[in-house]
Amino acid sequence: MANGDESDQIRELQARLRQLKLMSVAPTGFYGSKTTAAVRTFQSGHGLPATGSVDETTWKKIEGASKKPTEDELRPPTTNEVDAPDPRCMHGRVMCISKESRTLAWMIDGKIVSTMDVRFGSENTPTREGEFKVEWKAKDWVSTIYHTPMPYSMFFSEGQAVHYSSDFAARGYAGASHGCVNVRDKGKLSSLFDQVQVGDKVVVYW
Predict the structure, then answer these.
(1) What is the CA radius of gyration of the chain?
(2) Residue 154 — very low, low, confident or very high, per pLDDT cuts 50/70/90?
(3) Cα–Cα distance between 56 and 46 in angstroms, integer?
(4) Lowest mean pLDDT: which of 34-38, 163-167, 173-177?
(5) Rounded distance, CA 117 to CA 104, Å?
(6) Which of 46, 89, 91, 163 is catalytic?
(7) Does the active-site annotation cover 96?
(8) Is 180 a known active-site residue?
């Protein structure tokens, strides 16, 4: 297992690293920089080469030092922990969206007002990264391409939008969007939709 991989085994790895107090974020199944750093710390403390990736020796040591994760540990009901905001999020009204922690933080003048879990597009339909603006909003939108409901849509980049996804609510990270930023908490997104104005900033970053 190494940086950039995604699997259920990585979800288990992250849950075990969390038991060992080496990770604080909820398991996502995606091997990013936080997982790499946690594995490197574990390896350094156990006399293994600190590669940051998991070979058989490292996996056996992690298994020996932790217990088999419960379903709640693998898929905790709590929201993902928010990353340190990108510097571009620190001024004005911003939807600050981290691909690493899979979170959206609604920020005003550098203060986090609310946060929610998000998921992104697949490899074939990736969510664009960069700095954008909310171009338009639609409370009851249906995709003109895929003909699926996209409630509380806030469009920021040529058809890509932040919107509620019933599939994300039901299946979690087992699925992916077609490039949009999916939110699974309808209540939180409804409140955010009422606050966000056309022209507000959107930052999508790793």
Answers:
(1) 18
(2) very high
(3) 14
(4) 173-177
(5) 6
(6) 163
(7) no
(8) yes
Tell if the pTM clears 0.70, that is, is over it: no
pLDDT at 78 over 60: no
Q: Work out the burial of residue 149: count CB atoms within 10 Å of its CB; fewer than 13 is exposed, 13-18 middle, 19 or more buried.
A: middle
| SS3 assignment, position 80 | coil
Which phi-psi region, left, alpha or beta, contains residue 20 (left: φ > 0; alpha: ψ -120 to 50)?
Answer: alpha
Cβ neighbour number for residue 102 with a 10 Å cutoff: 23
Q: Say if residues 132 and 201 touch (Cβ distance below 8 Å).
A: yes
Helix or strand run (H / E) with residue 166: helix 166-171
Q: For the range 35-41, what are the long-range contacts, defined as Cβ-Cβ under 8 Å and sequence gap of 24 or more?
A: 35/3, 35/10, 36/2, 36/3, 38/14, 39/13
Q: Rounded distance, CA 87 to CA 70, Å?
A: 36
Asked if residues 151 and 139 have their Cβ atoms less than 8 Å apart, the reply is: yes
1-15, 44-58, 67-81: which is most confident: 44-58
Strands (E), the chain: 93-98, 103-108, 111-119, 130-133, 136-142, 149-157, 160-164, 181-183, 201-205
The count of residues in the chain is: 206
Structure tokens at 54: 């998991």
Domains and CATH numbers, the chain: 8-74 (1.10.101.10), 87-205 (2.40.440.10)
